[in-house]
Amino acid sequence: MSMIRDLRAVVRPSLRKSAVSYDYGATRTPSATSAVVDCAVYRDGARCSDHIDPAAALEKVRSGSRSEGFVWIGLHEPTEQEFAGIAEVFGLHPLAVEDAVHAHQRPKLERYDDILFTVFKTIRYVEHTELTATSEVVESGEVMVFTGRHFVITVRHGGHGSLRALRHRLEEDPELLAKGPSAVLHAIADQVVDDYLAVTEAVQDDIDDVEIDVFSATQGKSARGGDAGRIYQLKREVLEFKRAVSPLLRPMQLLSERPMRLIDPEIQKYFRDVADHVARVHEQVVGFDDLLNSILQANLAQATVAQNEDMRKITAWAAILAVPTMITGVYGMNFDHMPELHWRYGYPMVLCATVAICFSIHRGFRRNGWL
To answer: Which is it for strands 36-43 and 138-147: parallel, antiparallel or unpaired?
Structure first.
């Protein structure tokens, strides 16, 4: 059981925030002629063939000794023509092949005869110096895994989510890798979910920054709804994150609870840990979405309050200006029998009365907080 005891340390990288941006590598150059990134045969947990042809690798495993091995093939964004030969050799179902080639699938677990087809959405946090209304916060990709008795085929889409480092870590633990394809499937699921955990910490920091700006004591840009664009953009990014996590709950529960011939019983119990972490991330992402809704509503409420304050000030000044407008309107009617027009002190008296009335109204508005 010692090899299983160290499983977590082998397949789980550190959850530091910087772990989200490790070197992904292992992508094809435009001049490459094959989507196959790596193809190797493993027997007793040891790599015994390097960069072998997929058909030859499968034949070598099936015609080997009593010690069973498996083939691990890694592909990056294969075309239909590039994947057709591999699909025929390994007997992959056409529907699963179509999903693997065209990508943009939701996370899921499907069984085709003796083959498990699993889809994971990979998430990477995009570093940025300042969150703006156009900032990209998370970037998504996909990893599809075909798991059979004698093989594991991984198909990756997107510029991140490389499995090269994971393959090297597994190769350093032959006892674990000897458990077969199910150990590889667990390691991939564990790495994907660990990336989710790291991204949640980074997104939490962005949400905290926005929340501080909106509810800060200084009445500036945020008080007039200037942060609405940033909040909405962050909400859209969280929604993309949610679409990657939520559909993965059921597949992880199936892998951890339902007995499957392709999943080693000792490995299956560790899928429970992955399922627990997926549930935890899902709760956090749902919480992020609800919190951003509240922040957005608060921001819009602040903008409404600021607009109401502006309208009260405009109304107050309009009321003050209405006094001299009314008085001058009355004395501008040019009636003959208006005693004040011929009184020596009529003009200064009207001016003083106008100023006194305006001053009194201004004081009243200031006392009531309208000015």
So the answer is: unpaired
